[in-house]
Amino acid sequence: MRPLLSIEQYRQSILERIPEPRPVTVPLDTAYGCVLAGRLASPHDLPAFPSSAMDGYAVRSADIAAAAEGVPVSLQIEGEVRMGSAPHAEVLEGRAVAVPTGGMLPEGADTVVPVEECRVEGGAVWFCVPSRPGRNVRPAGEDLLAGELVVEAGRRVEAADLGALAAAGFAEVAVYRTPRVVVFSTGNELVEGGGDTGPGQIHESNSFMLRALVRRAGCEATYAGRVPDDPGALLRALEAAPPGDVLLCSGGVSAGRDDPVRRAFEGREEVGCVQVSVQPGRPQAFGVFRDKPFFGLPGNPMASLVSFELFVRPALKKMMGLPPTVDYLNATLDGALEAAPASVRFVPVRLTESGPQLIACSREQRRSNQLAKLAQSDGMAEVPPGAGLNAGEPVRVLSIREW
Ligand code: AMP
Ligand code: MG
Prior knowledge:
With 403 residues, the chain is α/β, with parallel strands linked by helices. Helices cover 17% and strands 32% of the residues. The longest helix has 20 residues, at 301-320.
């Protein structure tokens, strides 16, 4: 009899065998989606120099303090600041220097008067209103001072983070590498590539769903193909796997006569087959094969999906440098859900928003092979073992779509 483990026990046993990730330094452009391995502080003030926030004239505010409607003040124009260059001159008393948005503020000036407020005549510019010190000036270090945090460690790099890191001058960053997952399917009945199926055959579908789940988790996925129900063929396929960090196989883990994962690893150390008190998803296999984590998920699509979320995704998160949690949504049930005897049961539900609440609606009992029904759902509601859940009760839901 194979051991029966709780969901948490099994997940823990998997996580214990996933080594802590090691940081690698990558060009900034390839860091998108990866988790930063260290906190990154700005090596200098950002912006590094004071600049103009408007197209206008850089002046000394004191020079135009007396300007008023009907009593204009004129200053002599002393050339213009060019983008990307240091100002050619400082702003002396009685002078103004034209400056574009983002142009470096010349020495001496403490304010920029927008062109819309100026009248230019010959070599002079006229002002009818004063401009307070600091107006339209972006001081150096306004965004960040040297040594201040740009992006925190442990954060998954998003577009704005990349922008901020590039702006602070980082060309490369230390991240945890995104795992590449190699997906296999097992089963003599599986037909690949669409088209017709013969008697007893079905279209292979788990590889599509699992690759998408892997990508949704932020990792890379490749498909290594279908393996027949033959333990030798499975071992050969795993040995010849395309480059990757994780082996993810569906089907063939239960106690059936032909189940290749169970038969391939029976009596061997590296991969263990267990039973987990979850429905669907009871038979599971996990181990380390040729230094790579190997997951054998049950083939039923719904069981594959639930097992991925409960066991594979947390492991991938650990490899990516994230906390290895399972993320649940909190919802309220709109109808009763029966419990499974001695197992945590997952039931597909639709989710709807009702004010601040999420309502989980289960419309009917479904078997774990009903993939089309799964596609019409938004998540899998978790029913703990026991008396079941009643309408109006809170329920945790594994989300299968973005919410
Ligand atoms: P197994 O886990 O191999 O006993 O398979 C359980 C059920 O899932 C069977 O009905 C299989 O035909 C089905 N199944 C297994 N693998 C796949 C797959 N890759 N795509 C679609 N259905 C599958
Ligand atoms: Mg099978």
